[in-house]
Amino acid sequence: MPRSDHSQDGLTLPTGELRISGSRARPGRLRLAGELDVATRDMLLAVGCGPDRRARDLRLDASGLAFIDCAGLAALVELARAARAEGLAFEITAASGSLTRLSTLTGMNDVLGVDSNRAL
Questions:
Q1: Which of 20, 31, 46, 84 has its CA 20 to 30 A from that of 12?
Q2: Would you write out the chain's pLDDT as a tens digit for each of its 120 residues?
Q3: In a domain, 117, yes or no
């Protein structure tokens, strides 16, 4: 059964779309909205590992994720491990309920820094 469109901040994101927003003034801070899955994970990895993000701590607001699958979770884990391997911080500052549930089920809360008590 196809998922329906998702509303975020008064905007409707088409099914299957991931929106990544940030600013040049704060290049290590990103906001994720929509769906993070097998179809969109490469976009997150390209942005998260891009030249503007290298040598910077990475802080993600993932409260706008309406859907995440294991491929999306693996992309977040990959970003976290890559940042920490370079001695940088990685933090999910806000997690959606779907991210919190999936990271809890897979035992990735500690890796991602997701607080299972703060589910939205």
A1: 46
A2: 344 444 444 444 455 799 999 887 887 899 999 999 999 999 999 988 877 666 689 999 999 999 999 999 999 999 999 999 999 999 999 999 999 999 999 999 999 989 877 554
A3: no
Q: What are phi and psi of 16, to 5 degrees?
A: 85, 5
CA 103/CA 10 separation, integer angstroms:
27
The CATH number of whichever domain residue 33 belongs to comes to 3.30.750.24
Q: Which domain holds residue 80?
A: 26-107
Which helix (DSSP H) or strand (DSSP E) does residue 76 occupy?
helix 70-85
Quick one: tokens of 42? 């490469």
Element (H, E) at 31: strand 26-36
Tokens at 50, concatenated = 């891009």
Give the residue from 32, 52, 21, 47 showing the smallest Cα distance to 98.
Answer: 32
In a domain, 38, yes or no: yes
Please give the tally of structural domains in the chain.
1
